[in-house]
Inverse folding.
């Protein structure tokens, strides 16, 4: 079992119901549902600096990594799959990182969308 999070840019607030639709389309490799955005590349850069992708790790390093498989990356989105204990422990950190890059985070385990401060409604 893995713990997944998805990240992408939105120009305006979306609901959890809208986010789940985006998420499932991304899971089906339908990247047309999001627009390419430079914030995704910046987020990936920061993510890679902190936690390198599983494909870049040695066999010994994989055991220490939070990742359960390779990331699903497009110019407009990132989906990461983590081991269950790592995902639960690191979810808040990744949500905060996404918000620093003005990205939405969708948590399919909780069916919860986390909007960056720029989209949060008062």
């Amino acid at each position: 079992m893995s713990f997944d999070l998805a990240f992408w840019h939105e120009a305006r607030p979306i609901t959890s119901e809208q986010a789940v639709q985006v998420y499932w389309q991304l899971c089906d490799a339908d990247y047309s549902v999001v627009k390419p955005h430079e914030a995704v590349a910046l987020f990936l850069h920061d993510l890679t600096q902190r936690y390198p992708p599983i494909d870049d790790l040695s066999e010994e390093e994989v055991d220490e990594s939070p990742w359960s498989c390779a990331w699903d990356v497009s110019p407009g989105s990132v989906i990461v799959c983590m081991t269950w204990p790592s995902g639960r422990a690191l979810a808040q950190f990744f949500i905060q990182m996404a918000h620093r890059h003005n990205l939405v985070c969708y948590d399919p385990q909780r069916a919860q969308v986390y909007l960056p401060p720029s989209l949060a409604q008062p």
Notes: The beta strands are 2-8, 72-74, 77-83, 104-107, 112-114. Residues 2-114 form one domain. The longest helix spans residues 84-100. The chain has a mean pLDDT of 96.
